[in-house]
Amino acid sequence: MTKTASIADPVTPVSSKSGDPYLLTPGPLTTSLRTKQAMLRDWGSWDGDFKAVTAEIRTRLVEMCDGGNEYDCVPMQGSGTFSVEAALASFIPKDGKALVLMNGAYGQRASKTLQYIDRDYVALDKGDYLPPMPEEVDAILAQDKEITHVIAVHCETSSGILNPLQGISDAVQKHGRKLIVDSMSAFGAVPLSVKDIPFVCMVSSANKCIEGVPGFGFILAKKSELEAAKGNSHSLSLDVHDQWAVMNKTGQWRFTPPTHTVVAFLEALKQHEAEGGVEGRLARYAGNRDILIEGMRKMGFETLLEDEWISPIITTFFCPKHENFDFQTFYNEIKKRGFIIYPGKLTNIASFRIGCIGQLHADTMHGVLRAIRETCDAMGVTDRSPPEER
Fold first, then answer.
1. pLDDT in tens, 27-58
2. Ranges assigned E (strand) in 261-346
3. 339: helix, coil or strand?
4. Class of residue 363 by CB neighbours under 10 A (exposed 0-12, middle 13-18, buried 19+)
5. Strand, coil or helix: 64
6. pLDDT, tens digit (0-9, with 9 covering 90-100), for 169-206
7. Across-strand partners of 179?
8. pLDDT tens across 349-367, in order?
9. Three-state DSSP class for 378?
């Protein structure tokens, strides 16, 4: 059978309460109606009401990581990558040296950022399939005394690996180095407390597990590190120390904030709390993942990762080896049925990803499984197993 660009079989689409397809991605993601409605009002960025919103967000996020009086929160305009670059440039001094733990696109992006901002670094690259292990970090730090900081990605969404952050943190603390955590796609759903993992800074984003919309990221950092960051940054707009100092002095963002996104995020935080906080969010996402994986394996699909490394955030599946399978057709047909999935980011083999975060519940996951089954039947993809060379 020849691959086709589209399939004419009639479908009954499934959509979210807003009427849009469900986003089964690692962010942006499907948000609640309450979060959307929070964006219907215009706000003055210098007004006291908006400053109160910013202050409450900062307080709630520090509480979420058990930061107490030692930590503070600095929101930064832009995508999550803006905040990662801001953190690396602000907290790693010009004469510092980083160890970058890589097992996917976001560790690689951190190393590329360090090249741009002219910071010395070495990398531990584990490829697409495996996590950096604590004993490996321990050995590198024991050998290289010049390393001052270790950069770890909490959940590497290019593969879906949930990295062993506790063990990595223990190794970093053993050697008296400083840990920077990219918890972009995990914070808010995977527990992360400074009581267990005393990072110097952590970076995440509004449009991930707290289920806000895109527009800003945030940095949780030790106040002592924020003080020491003065003068480190290569950039005015990405200077975390300056943003922090101005917010503490005036209550305002230095430059025009994404007001609607910020207010929507506070509403999302309130819903996060009502769901049971991190534990409640994790329970729902883990349930979504378990339904997805069980159903996909029953259809013959294989996961990239062994079960012990699969996060509750997103799961990567191998593309079937069947001659009728074409990812773009597969994607389009699933979208017709009301679901948007994600292409793979692996370097060596074809894959696709399905997220479990956002306003998704058990019925949503059963719906996407039904859509995938119908799509495979319509495409004539009878064998869903991956190529042998995986």
1. 899 999 999 999 999 999 999 999 999 999 99
2. 314-318, 339-340, 342-343
3. strand
4. exposed
5. helix
6. 999 999 999 999 999 999 999 999 999 999 999 999 99
7. 150
8. 889 999 999 999 999 999 9
9. helix
Tokens of 333: 């047909």
Kindly report the three-state secondary structure assignment for every residue of 96-111: CEEEEEECCHHHHHHH
Residue 90 CB burial class (10 angstroms; 0-12, 13-18, ≥19): buried
Neighbours of 131 (CB within 10 A): 24
Residue in the block written with tokens 């191998």: 318
Amino acid at 234: H
- Is pLDDT at 8 greater than 50 in this prediction? no
Per DSSP, 11 falls in state -
**120-125: strand order across its sheet:** 71-77, 216-222, 201-205, 178-182, 149-153, 97-102, 120-125
**Tokens at residue 352, please?**
């696709």
How many other C-beta atoms lie within 10 A of the C-beta of residue 372?
A: 25
d(CA 24, CA 21) in angstroms, rounded, equals 9
N residues, the chain: 390
pTM (2 d.p.): 0.93
Please, which residues bridge with residue 222 across strands?
Answer: 71
Q: Collect all residues with Cβ–Cβ distance below 8 Å to 186 and sequence separation of at least 6.
A: 154, 155, 162, 192, 204, 208, 209, 311, 313
Q: In the numeric block, which tokens belong to residue 197?
A: 């993992």
